[in-house]
Amino acid sequence: MRRWCSPAAGRLARSWALYEAFRKTTNVPQDDVIRRARCDEGGLRIATPEDLIILKLIANREKDQIDLIGLCALPDLDWDYVERCAQEWELSELLKRFRNA
Description:
101 residues; 6 helices; globular
């Protein structure tokens, strides 16, 4: 029997897999990512732009690269946090490329 899955469900599954990989391997405690999350108007917790930058650097897909250009241009980012995480993941050079874009 073949199961059909919506594109949104597929994206959710990939996002969950990425989150699980991040949670299991990161040197930055998962609790910090959750603690740093912001609540939207409806009370949904959303990762900070800084944490999204790290996750997108790790994934480094074409669409992540496009997103990184916009994320890195946001004002008032905590660059100390982003640079520390990028260094721990050995992504400092990749971060520099997007930060200077």
